[in-house]
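Q: What does the assembled structure look like for these inputs?
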Amino acid sequence: MKRKHVGRQTVVMERPVYWTGAYSIGCTREKEGPLSPYFDEIAPDARWGEESFEKAEQKFFRTAAEKAIAKAGRHKNEMDFLIGGDLLNQIISASFSARELSIPFFGIYGACSSMAESMTLGSMLVDGGFAEHIICATSSHFATAERQFRMPLELGTPQTPTSQNTATAAGAAVLSRQAQSERDARICAATVGNVVDLGVTDSTNMGAAMAPAAAETILTHLEERGYRPGDYDAIITGDLGTLGSELLLDLSRQCGVELAGVHQDCGVMIYKGMKGMHCGGSGCGCGASTLAGYYWRQLRSGKIHHILFVATGALLSPTSVMQGESIPCIAHAVEIEGGR
Amino acid sequence: MKRKHVGRQTVVMERPVYWTGAYSIGCTREKEGPLSPYFDEIAPDARWGEESFEKAEQKFFRTAAEKAIAKAGRHKNEMDFLIGGDLLNQIISASFSARELSIPFFGIYGACSSMAESMTLGSMLVDGGFAEHIICATSSHFATAERQFRMPLELGTPQTPTSQNTATAAGAAVLSRQAQSERDARICAATVGNVVDLGVTDSTNMGAAMAPAAAETILTHLEERGYRPGDYDAIITGDLGTLGSELLLDLSRQCGVELAGVHQDCGVMIYKGMKGMHCGGSGCGCGASTLAGYYWRQLRSGKIHHILFVATGALLSPTSVMQGESIPCIAHAVEIEGGR
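A:
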């Protein structure tokens, strides 16, 4: 058997795990941004016909999962496992969706790193011989996140300049043991994150809190895989935003690695040029929908060939913040190669 | 390669995954119960020298993980992954412990099913060749759970007769590719749960909500593995409590399977004979500490040889309850064989 654990944090798949289906959903704000043409679907509004924002978020999650399965040409009964999570307490978007989908379910929590955590676990279970197909999904919703983590929307509390706007979005990916098409991209390797905490306590500045975790995971990945940044067409962070992205470049430079030119950030891209978005987008759905929407299409069309998707998560809770704790963060990286 | 996916929900390990270390911590109430001699450690009180109950719960989690690793004769740097979660919002007990432990971390959320979810994922990653050693851990705490899910303790709200007492406890297990001793038990198979929801909306009657999920997973496991209940020395649910256990036996009987005699429940056992405990214990720590304490010792001493550990989780949140949703539940089952 080929050695599958390389260095401390990186695992390499023995045979490629194919990315056979993807689906990406945004909402009205995401429609105004430059990635608008790359979503598979845009919800008409944040309620999407549901009684509550929480139920709407479940609809985002469930729809993304169902339609990614359909795009892979499969039926939900062919999915061996659903691996997913979201930002809400007790990951209710994922759990309630799992109830409707009836697929054996692993609930995960990695805050905004959830899509990379899900795809990392999913790839290992497929490569390990435990599954033919796995559906990975995650979602976030501006209104449910504000209600839970910040202030009631009705108060109209001003946002700080370092804040980021939680994307109302979901992304899903089907991972398979066999390719469905020669255009299917492949998961080759993944780097599992350590929790990193440099002592940031400002919960309205998540980009700054998460940048060190992103830097640690990216530098570890490059070292353990023996790559330079230029070996990638894009090293894509989930949602560091403009400030966090600058910090990531600075931190990497201090370690002798230049990421400028190759680094892209879903949080920066999703609302680029839009007013009132401060440092950009955030939320599990931001990175997941950009990966399953924009990057899926770039890989399939052959415009890019080799990417590292690095989703970062801030593992704080309102309780931990109120108790004066700093913000522990994590980043998982998934290495993806285009088909053909 | 041996076929690893048997039926819809069950996976079978190609080679045994060894359970090489375990550690179990309880607190004052757990000390009064009949399982008292089987805990590795009893915390002196619910604060355990910390500023808050939440920080105390982190200490339970972290200590259980650290000492299970030591009991396996290993160092934390030898652990490839930490897989764990807890009941608190954003699983802060697990995440903050991961920060201190510095082990590449997968955060999971399965409510009280977390220990079985963690061991299922961990076994597959070891068998799949991605890890030599994995540490699985989970915790719960009466005071943090009451604060988050129910009423402030200071109000002295009476509990309903169907309620269960969240255990202040933690359990941890090291899973390894190689045995450390001929007495090490082995994980042979696991059955991954579907989310089951029969419409129970009473969040003070979790046993009733979770019993159908337990029944579904146990019956599926027996069918997919081709076993009868009598092939096990014990089929152990995590925390159905007295009422939920009765319902499990009834539901199974309706499907023609008699579990009486072989079924045991950690929630019933942990506070047996104690006053004011209503339907018994609950919380991730209840099943995890009973498995890592009592059952670990029974397996190692050869008193029992073949068990099915079925941890059940109620995937509700206070928000979903307030929005009138019923309680989706899940149960994962881990099949364990004693050493020698």
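The mean pLDDT of chain A is 96.
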